[in-house]
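stage 2 :: seqdesign
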């Protein structure tokens, strides 16, 4: 199982994509089928397409992470973002991030966030192309590494939060060693 993540862009047209790539006969395949077969109000996973009648290869399940809020949001999610995911997967296949010799054994889940306030189809599309490709590259590379994560965790931020400069992290607590088991 190969897990990837990427956040690309700024503002309401940014893209956040999580990918899970794995064998059809393993847990990713089971999750893929389960998600496809269990839609919920506002969340309907579907097989992503490059064009009508041409599914993305490897089979890619598009899962929206934001409940659809109106016609425009639905159009941007199912249109621009889906096309972006399809193009991103295609680029990953062209680059060898996903090997041609392995696609018949794989499925991909792409969990995609499109802001309900998004307003630019071109930006949504391009950000999802890049986010999908970066998530797949990162997953294949095994990233992030522990050191990269620890460095980032010292000063965390995301599109919705940035720790104030005056904020200091909590002091490190010394954790006593675990005592040996008592004889019985």
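stage 2 :: out
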């Amino acid at each position: 199982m190969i897990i990837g993540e990427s956040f690309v862009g700024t503002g309401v047209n940014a893209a956040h994509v999580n990918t899970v790539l794995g064998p059809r006969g393993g847990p990713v395949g089971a999750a893929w089928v389960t998600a496809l077969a269990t839609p919920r109000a506002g969340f309907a996973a579907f097989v992503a397409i490059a064009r009508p009648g041409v599914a993305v290869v490897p089979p890619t399940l598009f899962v929206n992470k934001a409940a659809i809020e109106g016609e425009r949001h639905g159009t941007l999610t199912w249109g621009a973002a889906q096309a972006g995911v399809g193009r991103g997967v295609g680029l990953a296949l062209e680059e060898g991030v996903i090997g041609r010799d392995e696609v018949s054994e794989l499925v991909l889940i792409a969990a995609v966030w499109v802001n309900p306030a998004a307003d630019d189809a071109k930006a949504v599309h391009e950000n999802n192309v890049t986010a999908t490709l970066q998530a797949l590259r990162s997953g294949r590379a095994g990233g992030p590494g522990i050191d990269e994560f620890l460095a980032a965790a010292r000063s965390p931020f995301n599109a919705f939060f940035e720790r104030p400069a005056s904020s200091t992290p909590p002091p490190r607590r010394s954790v006593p060693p675990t005592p040996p088991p008592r004889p019985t």
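stage 3 :: structure notes
- The helical segments are 27-37, 71-95, 121-141, 146-153.
- The longest helix spans residues 71-95.
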